[in-house]
Request: fold
Amino acid sequence: MTYNELSETIIGVAIDIHRKLGPGLLESVYQHILVYELRKRGLSVRTEEPVPLIWDKIQFVMAFRADLIVEEMILVEIKSLEELASVHKRQLLTYLRVMDRRLGLLVNFGDEVLKDGIRRVINGTLPDDNA
Reply:
């Protein structure tokens, strides 16, 4: 599965969830349902994955927790806010760099229309050149 195909699947599932539930629930509710639906489709999903960081001789066992890692390819960060701030996109890019991942999706279930709350964040170039 390419990055584009996988991201389209994740976004499609998220939009379906949002259409049925609407905005306003806790992030954890959307996260659990999204994980359930992605796994139902046969996708590998890791949740709340602790991400280590090494700086010089200092090791942080958990620099942050990744909300979702889908098929070991895409990092998904879930929000449920009135609106995203520019820092959220920069934060996801930093996560991608620390994890040496190429593609992240920032999904804000708090938006009235979910497609307005989705941001694709790319770290470098994608191997399949389908960014």
The chain has one domain: 3-122. Residues 3-122 form a domain with the Trna Endonuclease; Chain: A, domain 1 fold (CATH 3.40.1350).
